[in-house]
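User: quick one
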Amino acid sequence: MKAGFKHLIFYLLVAFLCLIFVPLAHAHKVNIYAYAESGRVYSEGYFVDGTKAKNSVIEVFDEKDGTKLLEGKTDEEGKFSFQIPKATSLKLVFHASMGHQAEFTLGEDEVRAAMDAKQPLKASSVKSPSQSEVSAAKKTPKKERAEAAECKGLSESEIETIVGSAMDKKLQPLMRMIVQLQESSGKPKITEIIGGIGYIIGILGIVAYFKAKRSIKTD
Amino acid sequence: MHISEGVLSAPVLIAGAVLSLGGVSVGLKKMSYDKIPQVAVLSSAFFVASLIHVPIGPSSVHLVLNGLVGVFLGWMAFPSIFVALALQALLFQFGGFTSLGVNTFTMAAPAVIAYYLFNYPIRKARHTISMLAGFFAGVIGVGLGALFVAIALVTTGESFTNISKIMVLAHLPVMVIEGIVTAFCVVFLKKVKPEILEEVGKR
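Assistant: Done. Structure below.
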């Protein structure tokens, strides 16, 4: 009995060492999540256990006619971002190694909204991107004195710029949160696992039912 | 080792589905009434094994257990694994419904092979040898599974040597862990319930 116990410890030790020296990232199911913001699309690839999918190819297609628009690789954090190539709904196909693939579709309205947000933002950030939007808005009336004199306030486009950039700042953490939520929602939950076991037993119960019927007939 | 939806071309998917259908029907025929609970338990084990990821360092691994399923069930591994994979696809989008046939085949065929290679030595041989046989059943289950996935992926245009190298290398640690787990399960069950290993399809 004691020898058996020693053996057990030895094998457990071996198992433990194996677990430590796992050299390669082992792939599971992959997911991709993407959102469009101020003229760019931000996408992120990750495995179901939460590890980021590095150096994996993301292809971007026009969802309507299926043409490939661009292709890129994710960085060390599994992220990949690109300028919106076309105002259409975009389909992102994400290729991880070993036959894993995932898709994500960005709706046309979302893409368009992000493209519209880009124009005024660009105008204000061309001169000095680090400057705050309020000072940028103050600068512009100098250029267009006539307009500024006319209404003595902010023009419609300027308000849009300010609101847009403020919204972007406020929304960014929210977007990040959504990404995180999306990631955790892919993980199997304990209730689902137990439910799955129940299904298996149920299905084989049905098999047993039919087998039983047959054996009664043959008897 | 679940191949996702949309990766493989239609002929490969159909071939996998046909082969799996054959395997499932053979398995169902061989399934005797008193083997059904065992199939259910092993199917559940297979189902759970690929869902529980053990975090190790920066990555994580999960067991496959197809070698274990195979050694006990033989051809019945096909329906057993099919049910588990179908539920994984349904509940967690692991794999996918179009690739279900291919995935069933890549996991269940190695299980059947493991049965023919190792069931006899596990059943008849002495303690150490049956443990060793159990170990290799686990190794072969994952190893051949990885190889079959590689073969299926060759058709997507990747070179065979490249993709098979990636697949086998990535699963090397899993193979070893799986071997150890299978060896322990086999030895334990042989001691506690030897009739479980009896040749399937015969009563």
